[in-house]
Amino acid sequence: MSEQRPDNSILVKRLLLTVAGMFAFGFALVPLYDVFCEVTGFNGRTSNEAAVYQQVEVDESRTVNVQFITRNAKGIPWKFEPSIKQIKIHPGEVKVVNFLAENPTSSNMVAQAIPSVAPAEASLYLNKVECFCFNQQPLAAGAETEMPMQFYLDPDIPDHITTFTLSYTLYDMTANTSAEQMVQLLKTE
Fold first, then answer.
1. What is the pTM of this model?
2. Is the bond leading into 119 cis (omega within 30 degrees of zero)?
3. Closest CA to 149 of 54, 46, 35
4. DSSP code of 177?
């Protein structure tokens, strides 16, 4: 008497489809997370695009303290700091803060600053009109530069946000920049 084995082909197909679906979902997580962070302000991410300043009434009855912190990622020897550590701003008012960078090495380098805001909710109300963080920043060997960041706070910023911190981390992008790109970047500097 021979035993009949159950047909497992349907189960195998379902398992393979499940694995393929999980693999596709894994690839979709990064762009979905980026969209989620942009919409909710989660993780303190700010927009990478310039805001257009619409003339609004400045709320002089409120003042928000904005603190600036800079740090270098591992492996970038630049000196990088804000020209001021904090500023008081009225919602709707436009301010400019300069950040100072110096390349003390004997090599031309390219860096990229990545912003973050704490508390994360404040990032929804921070509007950067101009920012060095929008583009990679080339700096010739031994050179220094002043990099402006022009911003305003949305007048709808909640009353409980009286202080927030804008932090920039500077990353070395030199290895990702071709010699031709480096020449072009340094020409526009």
1. 0.70
2. yes
3. 46
4. S
Structure-block tokens of residue 118: 């704490």
Model confidence over 12-64: pLDDT tens digits? 888 899 998 888 888 777 777 666 655 555 554 565 665 566 777 889 999 99
**Distance between CA atoms of residues 186 and 64, nearest Å:** 37
Q: Are 143 and 101 in contact (CB under 8 A)?
A: no
Between CA 78 and CA 76 the distance in angstroms is 6
Distance CA 83, CA 35 (A): 32
Paired with 149 in beta bridges are 97, 131
Instruction: Kindly give the pairing relationship between strand 163-172 and strand 64-72.
Output: parallel
User: pLDDT tens digits for 59-103?
Assistant: 999 999 999 999 999 989 999 999 999 999 999 999 999 999 999
